[in-house]
Amino acid sequence: MFLSLSSLLLTLLSAAGTFPADFPEPLPHFLQEPEDAYIIRNQAVSLSCRATPANQIYFRCNGEWVHQREHSTQERVEHSSGLLVKEVRIEVYRQQVEEVFRLEEFWCQCVAWSSSGTTKSRKAHVYIAYLKKVFKVEPLGKDVPLNQEVLLQCLPPEGIPPAQVEWLKNQDIIDPAADRNFYITTDHNLIIKQVRLSDTANYTCLAYNIVARRCSSMATITVYVNGGWSRWTEWSACSGVCGRGFQRRTRDCTNPAPLSGGSLCDGLPVQKLSCTVHCPAPGLDGVLVCVGILLTVMFLLVPLVMLLYCRYHNHFSSSIINSSNISGDFQPIHIKPLQTGLSVSLSLRRVL
After folding, report:
1. Which one, 9, 38, 57, 312, has the greatest CB density within 10 A?
2. Could you confirm whether domain 22-129 is CATH 2.60.40.10?
3. Measured between alpha carbons, how far is 49 from 34 in angstroms, rounded to an integer?
4. What is the pLDDT of residue 315?
């Protein structure tokens, strides 16, 4: 059987007459200490530790020693120092934790021995992991104007270990590093620094730990745009030709146009302004215009008067008839409407 380097060194020192007490064995130190663990549903957890130099190493939980048969032990000699390394492992079950959990925390630690004394490891706590279903605070939907800051609150359900939180936008995970317009606070709230039209979406708070994942109710953010007026057009020309009139100008509710229930523009789209056009002073041009109008009137009225006269004269002449009852010597007289006064006189003389 091979002797360890330390055993061989002690043998040589004894042969040389040197007492072993001059080279005492060091206290154990831990190469691995037990870590906190979580029991998921009914699955047992393993706790382990490793120490050197260690002649014995055991677990104790909540101040009581764990029975030797419940330990799984391995040992080896460390080649660099020739010291003995021991490693132990135990299994902790849900029932063990529940028996203590109502009164206090469940913890375990390792104790290692060497010829120089003992060393204790850190305490490792064992928890029963869970995540409740109900959120303490859930996000609420809202309608917000363009470019306003928005705060969505989320307080995840109680759980062990404490739940981590992510935010979903239309079921896609929000990455604040990729989109600087989003910010997640240390207390799990989501801040949208300046909402854009593209931020109109459904938002969900996602809480999770090693046990489960929980989703909050969906909060709908609707980004609306209030209407804004365009610039006024130039004033139109005065509507009057000579005297009073008015001018007008217009504007449109398109800068921007209302969107997603935003309010219409406040005010009127049309403005009117009274104006006066000065009439030209009468001069040569005005006289010529008046003469022209007078001549035009005369040119139209004279033929009309003559036409009326002629029609009236023809009607009067045709009403004269031959009457032998008045004078038997008279002959029928025919007066032509277009004869002059001289012709009529000559005809009368001939008759007489």
Report:
1. 57
2. yes
3. 5
4. 58
H helices of 16-136, where?
Answer: 94-101
Q: Are strands 219-224 and 142-145 parallel, antiparallel or unpaired?
A: parallel
For residue 288, what is the DSSP state?
Answer: H
Are 250 and 232 within 8 A, CB to CB? yes
Give residue 114's identity as a one-letter amino acid code: S
For position 244, what pLDDT does the model report?
85
In the chain, what are the helix, strand and coil shares in percent, each to the nearest 5? 20, 35, 45
Where in the chain do CATH 2.20.100.10 domains reside? 229-283
Question: What is the number of other CB atoms lying within 10 angstroms of the CB of residue 224?
Answer: 17
Question: Which one, of 122, 96, 98, 97, lies nearest residue 109 by Cα?
Answer: 122
CA distances from 286 to 281, 283, 291, 293 (A): 8, 5, 9, 11
pTM exceeds 0.70, yes or no: no
Sequence ranges of the chain with CATH classification 2.60.40.10: 22-129, 142-224
Chain-centroid distance, C-alpha 81: 65
Which two tokens mark 306? Answer: 């003559």
Residue 263 pairs with which residues in a beta bridge? Answer: none
> What is the dotted CATH code of the domain comprising 229-283?
2.20.100.10
Cβ contacts of 93-102, under 8 Å, gap ≥ 24 = 93/39, 93/44, 94/39, 94/41, 94/42, 94/44, 94/128, 96/61, 97/39, 97/126, 97/127, 97/128, 98/128, 100/62, 101/128
Q: Would you state the pLDDT for residue 312? A: 67
Using CA atoms, how far residue 125 sits from 61, 95, 105, in Å, is: 9, 15, 7
Closest C-alpha to 97, from 125, 59, 122, 71: 125
With the CA atoms of 300, 302, 303 and 305 taken in that order, what torsion angle do they form, in degrees rounded to the nearest 10? 120
For the chain, residues with pLDDT lower than 50 are 1-22, 320-352
**What are 260's two structure tokens?**
């997603």
Residue 328 pLDDT? 46
Digit-coded pLDDT (tens) for 261-307: 899 999 999 999 988 888 776 655 556 666 677 777 677 777 777 77
* Opening angle at CA 206, ends 203 and 210, nearest 5: 170
Please state the length of the chain. 352
At a CB cut-off of 8 Å and minimum separation 6, what does 326 contact?
A: none
